[in-house]
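INFO batch 0412 | record 1 of 1 | parsing
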Amino acid sequence: MISHLENIESKLNEFEDIIGYKFKNQKLLFEALSHSSYANEMKKSHLRSNERLEFLGDSVLSIVVSDYLYRHFKHLPEGELTRVRASLVCEKALFEFSDQIRLSDFILLGKGEMRSQGNKRPSTVSDAFEAVIAAIYLDGGLEAAKDHIMRFMPDNIISKKKDSNEDYKSILQEIIQRNPEENIEYRLVDESGPDHDKKFTVRVMLNSNVIGEGTGKSKKNAEQTAAKEALELMGYGKK
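INFO prediction complete | emitting tokens
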């Protein structure tokens, strides 16, 4: 009979074959694929969830994509570069990229999350996608992470401009940056619901003043909704 750990090792090996990267420290990949619900059920093993790796992966993804756009699209102004980047690193794009490596099949979930098909939820999958990037970065360095990320960049990358207007955070940031003394901050003010159906409420602050509030099934979605509300209040509503 195959033990749980043997089954996990088999899944990790299969995923390495799919992404074409062999980990020197496979524990990093194990952590990257471990949802908080799974980590909570594995408390005795002291396993950490992928949340910290997701935090790091978000930054690695941003710098790699930013560097690529800066070097290859020299005719684009800063505002357009920001919008193209936003369309490539948003939750929707990462969820689509994840299909190429069947990531949802390898995410480790707690029993409740498995019953509710949490591995099909865009926020869960996109967070795991960023966590895998961080795991590769920590294991093999920036070049290894870059090689992994660039395989997902579409050939018609510049057409992503058309979809980028949906990234309200980037649009708001772009507007606020025109006044260097202004400062934008997103604050999580409420978190409710079980692991498989959480809701997050975020406020966007301008110099400590609330200018928008949003609720969503992930922190990123809530931030986007808050930024959209702020834009509408500032007279930049979608036309």
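INFO post-check: Confidence is low (pLDDT under 50) at residues 161-165.
INFO record closed
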